[in-house]
Amino acid sequence: MTVHIGAKKGDIAETVLLPGDPLRAKYIAENYFDDVECYNEVRGMYGYTGYYKGKRVSAQGSGMGMPSLSIYVNELVQEYGVKKIMRVGSCGAISERVNVRDVILAIGACSNSKMNDIRFDGQSYSPTATYELLQAAYQTAEANGVDVEVGNIYSSDMFYQDDRNWYEVWKEYGVLAVEMETAELYTLAARHNIEALSILTVSDSLVTGEETTSEEREKTFTDMMEIALEIA
């Protein structure tokens, strides 16, 4: 076990679905896994392993923000041998191209985080998805009749920002949505030579003001979960 994950070696599958919300991990396990076992309850950050259509898969909460996700990804990869991580999270639309409940496959992630500034001594790094996972997710969505948008997203360290129009410049450059984790996931995937993809559901729109409830975000964003599970 590690400081933050109470699992033994072998308890966690090589493929992990990584929602920020631990209750979404619980929902995935209870509604999609067979022979499910809970391997982690440390800090309430639930982790489960089970089988989906005969494939061994885990679901692990990562918490909110890049520093929290970084802890779990580092431990999953370095201590438990995880090879493939798919974030299944929510995001806020900053473009008219996407609406509430739309699914986004994040090809890359801009960011205001200082984490990569520290890593790369102030130089810019462009975190990107694993192409094979991106392609497989797009093809799976198409086959299942799920409309998806593929594009750039923005990973922010700040949920509440004083400037209500902060996103306008990102919107002008084609960024679709804002969330808080993907840039770090893609950076760590490159560092550790693993596969990674963020599959995101739009939970609210900064453009229109429309939003969903916390329960809806936890339990009804099933399209992204099923896409991730199919390519696990």
Written description of the protein model:
The record marks 217 as: Important for catalytic activity. Keywords: Glycosyltransferase, Transferase. The active site is at 204 (proton donor). InterPro entries: DeoD-type (IPR004402), Nucleoside_phosphorylase_CS (IPR018016), Nucleoside_phosphorylase_d (IPR000845), Nucleoside_phosphorylase_sf (IPR035994). Residues 16-226 form the Nucleoside phosphorylase domain. With 232 residues, this protein is of the alpha/beta class. It has a single domain (15-230), classed as Rossmann fold, CATH 3.40.50. A hairpin with a 2-residue loop joins strand 3 (47-52) and strand 4 (55-60). The chain is globular. Helix 2 packs parallel to helix 6. It is built from 8 helices and 9 strands. Strands 5-8-7-6-9 form a 5-stranded mixed beta barrel.
